[in-house]
Amino acid sequence: MKINIPHVAKLANLEIREDEELKFESQLSAVLTYIERLNEVDTKGINETSQVTGLENIMREDTTSPSLSQVEALSEAHQTHKGLFAVKGVFENE
Amino acid sequence: MSKYTPIIGLEVHVELKTKSKMFCGCSAEYFGKEPNTHTCPVCLGLPGALPVPNRQAIDWCIMIALALKCEINTFSKFDRKNYFYPDLPKGYQISQYDLPFGKNGEIRLKNGKKIGITRVHMEEDTGKLMHQEIEGNKTTLIDFNRSSLPLVEIVTEPDFHTSEDVVEYLQRLQRIVRYLEVSNADMDKGDMRLEPNISLSLDPEILPNYKVEVKNINSFRFVGKSIEFEIKRQEKILESNKTPAQETRGWNEERNETVSQRIKEEANDYRYFPEPDIPPIITLESKIISLKEGLPELQEEKISRFMKLFGISEYDADILTREKGLANYFEEAAALGFKKDIKAKQIANEIINNKIDYSSTPVKNLIDEILVKSKVEEIDEAELEKTIDKVLSENQKAVDDYKSGKESVIMFLVGQCMRLIGRKVDANFIKARLVNRLT
Amino acid sequence: MSSMVNLTIKDAREKLDRKEISSVELTKVFLENIKKHNESLNAFLAVTEDEALRNAASADERIANGESTPMLGIPVALKDLFQTKGIRTTAGSKVLENYIAQYDGTVVKKLKAAGAVLLGKTNLDAWAHGSSGENSDFGPTKNPYNTDFVPGGSSSGSPVAVASEMALAASGTDTGGSIRLPASFCNVVGLKPTYGRVSRYGVIAMASSLDSIGHFTKTVEDNAMYLQITAGHDKMDATTPHVEVPNYTKNINTGVKGLRIGVPKEYVIEGLDPKVKDMIEETLKWYEDEGAEIINISLPHTSYAIEVYYIIQTAEVSSNLARYTGIRYGKDRSYFSDEAKRRIMLGTYVLSAGYYDAFYKKAMQVRTLLKNDFEEAFKKIDVMITPASPTLPWKLGAKTDDPLAMYLSDIFTVHANLVGVPGLSVPVGIIDGLPVGMQILGPHFSEAKLFQVGYAYEKAHPIWKERPAL
C-alpha cells in the first residue's frame, strides 16, 4: 500500500525533506501492509469501542477555579508582546 | 428580476454565558480583561492537560435545541476536529461530529416560511488573533482568554433565498437564546457569530455545485449588506459563464466587500474521531422532559397569549415581547392596571408610544401616570346642555346626516363638544347624551 | 553503604519509622549512587538534588511528628513525561529540551503530599514511542545487567534507576507495554494499572485511550505501597471512575490455592524464544504445585492486536502531538525525531478522508472483539499468565533499522492496553545474564489479586535479589 508522504506531511504540519520522502514511504508502507491484515476479520454488525471505562455523563459543575497568572501562562513562550503570544504573521485577507 | 435564486444556509455560533469555560474552571468573563489572564493548562493546551465538560453548558445547549424543536440524540459524544491554526492551542478543537446533541429542528418566519435546523451542537471557542506590524515584522498576536469558552453551533438547511429572511431568522434566534437566558447573543461583542454559505442557482430545487462561506460579519447591520454584495459578485461571475470558486471569504467593513482569504483551509480534512478523554453523554427521555418543562415561555407563545389575554394587536405584542424583561414588565403593569380599571391596551400604548424605559420606571409609577392622563373631569348638567345646544345649532348638516343614517357622524359631534368644553371629560358620556338628544 | 543494597520501600519505611535512618541520609545515598552510575547507564535526564534534600528534610519533620505513611521520605524518580512544576520536563525529545513545567500533575501532587522525595526525571523513548529506550533524543539508557543490551522501553530510565539502586521506586507509563516489558528486562516489578485507576492529568499524553500510569519497584509489596498513593478518582481526569481504592497490602500474602490461571494458547508464537517459553512453563508448574489450577484458554483475536494497536495508538498520537508547534512552549516541529514523525504521519493517514473506515473504524470494531475475548476468558479464570516479551533483551542497535520489527516486540503486551485491564510484570529468572519476567493479567480493577499472585511467586523465588554487577 503506497502512502502519499507529501500530502500526509502537509496535513500533519510536518516538513519532510525531499530526500527523506522515499525512506519514510518505504518504512510506513511496510507497516501499512502489515496493518491491512485487519481486513481478514469479519466485523459485520460489531460496534466500535472508543472508550474502555464504560463511564457516561462525566461532567463538572459550572464553578470557577483559579487561572494561571499571565506570567505563568507566557513563561515558556518563544516570543511574546505586551502580554500576548507572538508568532510570525498569519494572514486572513489580501 | 434575477434569473438566479440565492441558496443560503447559515451557521451561527452562540457563546454561552456560563460562569466557567467549557472544559476547565477558568472564569468565562474574559471581556475587557488583560490578555492571557484567564487561562490554565487545559485551555492553554499545555502538555498533559485534560478536558472535563461543563454540565450547565450541555444543559443549555439541549435547551436551545428544544426551543428550536429539535430531536435530542439520546447517545451523544464529543469528537476531535483536527487542524492547525495559531488560535487553536491543542491543534484540535473538541466539537461534535456525527452525534450532535440536537438535530432536525425548525424555525418559522413571519411569512410562514419554514427554515430547517440541521443540527445544534457544542464545541469550544478558540483564542483571539490580532495582526500587527512590530518592528517592521508582520506579527500575529494571540490571546487565549477566549479559548475553550462554550459555543453552541446552530446549522440550518440551505433554505434561505433572501437576505431579509436571514436577518429575520437571526433576530428570532437572538431572541430565543436571550429568552432562555443562556447567552447575551450580542453580535458586536462576538457572542453571536454568523457564517452564511451562499451560492446561486437557476433552479431553487437544485443545489449548485459550489458554495462560498462568508466570515467576519461582526454586526447586524452588515448581515444584509454582505449577503447582497456576495450575491451580486457571484452573479457577475456566473453571467460570464464561469463558476465562482468554492472558498471562504471575509467581509471587509471598510471596503464594503467580501475578500478572498489567503489562508485557505486547503486540505479541509479534519480527521474527526471520538474524543477519547471524555466519556459519552447519555440524555435520557426523563431528562429531556424535565429540560423541556423548564423552558421559559418563548416569544412566539407569549405573543399569542398576550393577544388572547390582553386583546392587544400582534404588532403591539411583538414589540412588547422583544425583550423578556419588557414582556414581564408589561404583564405586571397589566395586572396592577386591572385592579385600577385601566385596560391593558392603554398600558401597551403608553409603553410603546412614549418609549418607556422599563428598567428605570417602576410599574406603580407607570400606572399612576396613566391614571392621571385618563382622569376625566366632571361636567354639570347646565353646562352640558348649553354645550350640546350650541354644537347642534352650529352643525346642522351633521345633524341631518346623522338623522339620515350616517351614524359615524356622531363622533364628529362629540369632538366638537369636547373642544368647546375644553377639559377632559368622559367622551362616552357626551356621546350617549347626544344620541339621546338626536333620537 | 552496603546495608542500603537491596533496600526495599518496606525496609526503608521500617528504618525511617524506627529513626534508624533519616530521609535526608537515605536520599544522600541515592544521590551518591546516581553520581556513580548514571553516566554509564544514562537513566536520569535531570537530577533535582536541592529539591530532593528539601523534600527529605520536610519528610523527616513529619516522621518526627509521628507520621508513618507508605511513601513518606522515600526517594523516587519520575519518567520525564510527568509535569513537575519548575523542573525541566522533556518527554525525551529535543522539542521540549528546555521546557520548564508550568504545573504539577495529579500523581506528582499526590506523591508530594505523601512526602515522597523526588530525585529526578528519568530517560525514555521520546514521546513514549518505543520498546527499547533507543528512541530517546538524549541517548539510549543501558541495561544494568549488560550495558550492551537494551533495558526496554518506552519507560527505560525508571526501571534502570530502581534496578541499579538509583531510586527506591520510579514512575512510568504503559501504552502498549512500556512498563511491563522494561520491567521484565531489568529484573524489577512493573505495574500497568487498570486504565483510569491512576489519573493521567499532568502526564504528557501519548495515546489517550491507552495510556496507563504505573510504576517500578524492586518487590511486589513495594509496588502495592506505591499504588496505594497514586490510585483513585481525579476530578481533573474524566476517565477515572469512582472505584474504591482497596488496601493493596493487607491480604497480599493470601497465596494461590484454588486460583484459576489462564494460559492463552495464542501466545505460543513462532517468535517466542524457547528459553523464555521454558521459563514461563516452569513458573506455571510452580503455581500448580502451590494449589492453582492451570487452564488453557483461547483469545481468538490476539493475532490482530498489534494491527489494532498501531492504528488506534498512532491516530491518537498524531492528534496529541498537534499542540507542539513551538508557539506557546518548546521548539517547533522540525525538532521531532524520525520515529515521532513516522507515528504522526501514520496516525494522520489512518484518520484521513477515504481511509477512516478501512483503518480507524475497523480497528475500533476489532477492539470490541478483543474486549469480548477477555470478558469471555475471565468468566472461567481469575488471572492470565504470559511472558512479558517474546524474547530476551536484545543488543543495542539490533532493531533500530527496522521499525516494524521494533513494533512486534509489543506483541504480548498491547492487548491489555486495548482492553484496559491491569498487568503486573514480575521477575521469573535470569537467562544468559539477562532478566526474564512474566506478566500477570487480570480483570479491570483486580490489582490486589495481581499483587497476591506475584507476591506468592516472589516470596519463593526472590530473583530480584540478584543485583546487577555495576
Write the layout of secondary structure elements.
The complex is a heterotrimer of chains A (94), B (439) and C (470).
Chain A: H1 5-11, H2 18-35, H3 70-74, E1 80-81, E2 84-88
Chain B: E1 5-15, H1 55-67, E2 71-72, E3 75-76, E4 79-82, E5 92-95, E6 102-108, E7 114-124, E8 128-134, E9 137-143, E10 150-156, H2 163-179, E11 192-201, E12 212-215, H3 220-239, E13 248-252, E14 257-260, E15 273-274, E16 281-282, H4 285-293, H5 299-310, H6 314-320, H7 324-339, H8 344-353, H9 363-374, H10 381-394, H11 396-403, H12 409-421, H13 427-438
Parallel strand pairs in B: 12-13
Antiparallel strand pairs in B: 1-10, 1-11, 2-6, 3-16, 4-5, 4-15, 6-7, 7-10, 8-9, 11-12, 13-14
Chain C: H1 9-17, H2 23-41, E1 44-47, H3 49-64, E2 75-79, H4 106-113, E3 117-122, H5 157-163, E4 169-174, H6 180-186, E5 189-192, E6 212-217, H7 220-230, E7 260-264, H8 274-289, E8 293-297, H9 305-320, H10 338-351, H11 357-380, E9 383-387, H12 403-407, H13 414-419, E10 423-431, E11 434-441, H14 447-460
Parallel strand pairs in C: 2-3, 2-4, 7-8, 7-9
Antiparallel strand pairs in C: 1-3, 4-6, 5-6, 5-10, 9-11, 10-11
Helix pairs in contact in C: 2-3, 7-14, 9-10, 9-11
Averaged pLDDT of chain B, please? 92
Structural class of chain C: alpha/beta
Question: What integer value in Å does the Rg of chain B equal?
Answer: 30 Å
Q: SS-based structural class of chain B?
A: alpha+beta
Placed side by side, the strands forming the largest sheet of chain B appear as 2-6-7-10-1-11-12-13-14
Task: Note the beta-strand portion of chain B.
Answer: 15-25%
Assess the beta-strand content of chain C as a share of residues.
5-15%
Low-confidence stretches of chain B: none
Tally of contiguous helical segments of chain C: 14
Largest interface (CB within 8 Å) is between:
A-C, 45 and 58 residues
- Number of structural domains of chain C: 1
Quantity of strands of chain B, as a count: 16
Q: What is the CATH superfamily label of chain C?
A: Amidase signature (AS) domain
CATH architectural category of chain C: Alpha-Beta Complex
The largest sheet of chain C, given as strand count, sense and whether it forms a barrel, is: 11 strands, mixed
Helix and strand sequence of chain C: HHEHEHEHEHEEHEHEHHHEHHEEH
Class of chain C, according to the CATH hierarchy? Alpha Beta
What is the subunit organization of this protein? heterotrimer
